Amino acid sequence: MKGTTFVQIISFANQKGGVGKTTSALNSAAMLGVLDKRVLLLDLDPQANSTSALGISKNAVKYSIYEVFTGKVEDISKAIIKTSFKNLWIIPSNMSLASIEAELTDQGGRVSYLKNILNELRGRDLFDYVIIDCPPSLGMITINALVASNGLIIPTQCEYFALEGLTQLMMSVKQIKSRYNSNLNITGILITMFTPRFKLSQEVLSELEKYYFDIIFEQKISRSVVISESSSFAEPLYYYSKYSKSSLEYMKVAKEIILRIEGII
Asked: In sequence order, what DSSP letters do the residues of 245-256 get, joined into one string?
């Protein structure tokens, strides 16, 4: 399906690690591709797990997001790699990106650097969605992602420490929205690693619903070994185990993203 223009830029962010952020960004992007959306996955995590999970050697790529950030590649399209999966492209990452925080600090307009880079793609009619996998921090890389985005999805595990981190993230989003990017909106909070039979999961979910009931995704992601297996085989869930519970859950998440962003499905 041909899209209109390069419009939707959605960051997956949470400063707390281990909440299923990369898994959610990767599989949401892959599912959107299956649903005939042209998707660019932008790996902004120096660990480069999204890159590896798509079967791309992070040490063998000619150009990564680091080269884009540092201006070593002038045309961003040179860093885009077509994956073997339907309608899915990626700008890969590697450990070189770990040094970019300090480098950005020395540059003027540093919070808008990624926004200016992505502006190169506007009008080219290449993608319907850009999905950004942010690092597990609220550093300069994540701030750049949020300044460039019009949507934010917050993967959140049902544990009490996640509640504290979510409050901090919401405050940061409010500041970024008021100072740098009035177009930034919270697409939703995505509950991950959810085990309904655990009392803790139910208690934390209840607390989240008290404050964020209107932005919590209806579909929750269950804890499942098949998620880890798919990553080890370098395949998104849809391609590794199409009819598994986890795959079906992420398909529903992708449809919910389209509904929340475009109002249609």
From this structure: HHHHHHHHHHHH
